[in-house]
Design a protein that fits this description.
alpha/beta, five-stranded parallel sheet
């Protein structure tokens, strides 16, 4: 079982164990949503969890809804996936079920389309109504009802009603029988009569198709033996529904109409921290900014893990951030770089707002801070020697507080104008601050322009 979860950086295997235990307690039809934002590892989880379920004896059918979006008929999509999962000798049963589903779509789907479009295309309605009459059987009785109502009802309207009634008969009588046959064939050699259908990429489909899949599950598959698990970005689907149907007056979320159990796929903070730290350990730093451990890749990776948890970025976005840092290190490999500062600034750029300097105090060594401190020192020069001494001591204390690791670096880091020795404050605020952050921002900005969106 452990091989199934290879590369499980976010420790989703533990979530898989919990969800598997839940599935095994379900004896009736249920729709479960497993919700996470884009880039949160839903597809990885789906593939590994499906294998885990099969390993425990469950019958699992996986559907990539995005690949079926072009079909236009979610019922056919789901049934085709069930048929594909049948043993070869049972394919005939599946073909019959698909035939019934196509019949349902041909009658009900087109009738509904005509009503929705308010079209007066009589020729299409006539063609459709022939199929409706064949399926309804007792069309004469309907015709008599129409006659009794009066001349106000047109032939076209009557034919639409016939089509809808025919579709309902197929849905209520024929489809359930075929679904039971499919369920029995799929579970014949299993220790369960439950079929778990996992649908992924629903939130990447055309809005109308995504909505149609949800409605088909409740309309057609509302019988025991089928458990649907939807891997979705719930927030995105809710916005689709609001756009199509408007905001619900009773504050009920759209998914609540179709989903019985809503679950969240969210890595634990400790797992996200560990995963991102592990990824960042491979950053290819050429020349460290200094010999201190503070400038090591290990420290930069540790910071990346903390920032990942703090920002709550998706793993996909974090990988892109680390890619930007990696490219900066590669493109400027002959230039001394502060790996932790690159990580800090890259996350800050992605967040588009300042990060807390508590994560990296030396990130406060900005050109503006340098100018302010030098201005204070210069102002003290015109006063008493005690004032000059006090100002110098205060500046040294601040330098040691904010960035002791930036003091006593190789002389070339400061670009002194001569061979004299300088106070800590002068090294940091006069010679380091003007270029420290700008140099690293420029490196990240240059590679950001190269990355395709």
């Amino acid at each position: 079982m452990s091989g199934i979860w290879t590369d499980d950086l976010l420790e989703y295997s533990k979530v898989g164990d919990t969800f598997t235990n839940l599935i095994k307690t379900l004896d009736e039809n249920r729709v479960i949503s497993i919700e996470a934002g884009f880039g949160r590892g839903k597809t990885f989880f789906r593939k590994a969890w499906a294998q885990q379920l099969r390993g425990t004896g469950e019958v699992v059918v996986e559907i990539d809804a995005q690949k079926s979006d072009h079909s236009g008929d979610p019922l056919i999509t789901v049934l085709a996936a069930l048929v594909e999962s049948l043993p070869r000798k049972e394919k005939g049963k599946g073909a019959k079920a698909l035939g019934v589903a196509k019949k349902f779509g041909a009658i009900g789907g087109r009738a509904a389309a005509r009503i929705a479009l308010r079209s007066g295309a009589e020729e299409l309605i006539d063609t459709m109504s022939e199929k409706a009459i064949d399926q309804l059987g007792d069309f004469d009785a309907l015709d008599q009802v129409i006659t009794d109502i009066g001349d106000g009802m047109s032939k076209a309207a009557g034919q639409m009603i016939a089509a809808q009634m025919a579709a309902e008969r197929v849905r209520k009588e024929e489809l359930p029988d075929q679904l039971k046959a499919l369920q029995a064939a799929l579970t014949e050699k299993a220790d369960t009569d439950r079929v778990v259908i996992i649908i992924d990429e629903l939130d990447r489909c055309h809005p109308n198709y995504a909505i149609a899949v949800l409605e088909a599950m409740k309309l057609v598959f509302g019988q025991s033996g089928f458990v649907f698990c939807l891997m979705v970005n719930a927030e995105y689907l809710e916005k689709l529904a609001e756009h199509q149907f408007g905001i619900s007056s009773d504050d009920e979320r759209y998914l609540d109409k179709f989903v019985d159990i809503r679950l969240r796929l969210q890595p634990r903070a400790v797992s996200m921290n560990a995963a991102v730290t592990s990824l960042a350990m491979s950053l290819p730093l050429g020349i460290p900014f200094g010999e201190s451990e503070e400038f090591s890749i290990a420290k930069a990776a540790e910071l990346a893990g903390k920032l990942a948890v703090s920002t709550n970025f998706s793993m996909r976005k974090i990988k892109r951030i680390l890619l930007q840092v990696e490219l900066a290190m590669r493109c400027y490999s002959k230039q001394p770089l502060d790996a932790s500062l690159l990580v800090f600034l890259a996350f800050e750029m992605a967040l588009n707002e300042p990060l807390s300097a508590d994560f990296l105090p030396r990130s406060q060594i900005t050109p503006r801070l340098g100018r302010d401190e030098i201005r204070k020192i210069d102002a003290a020069q015109s006063r008493s020697s005690q004032h000059r001494y006090n100002a110098s001591e205060q500046a040294n204390a601040l330098a040691n507080k904010l960035a002791p690791e930036l003091i006593n670096l190789p002389r070339e880091r400061y670009e002194y104008p001569d061979e004299k020795e300088y106070f800590y404050w002068a090294s940091l605020f006069k010679y380091m601050a003007p270029k420290y952050l700008p140099m690293h921002r420029d490196a990240l900005g240059a590679v950001a322009e190269l990355l395709a969106e």
